[in-house]
Amino acid sequence: MKIILLWGLSIILSFNLLAAETQIEKEYQDLVELFFDAARMGNNEVLETFVSQGFPIDQRNNQSYTALMVAAYGGKEESVSLLLDLGANACLQDKRGNTALMGALIKREVAIAKDLYQADCSPELRNKAGLNLAEFAKIYGQSEVLQSLTN
Question: Which residues lie in coiled coils (predicted)?
Answer without folding.
Answer: none
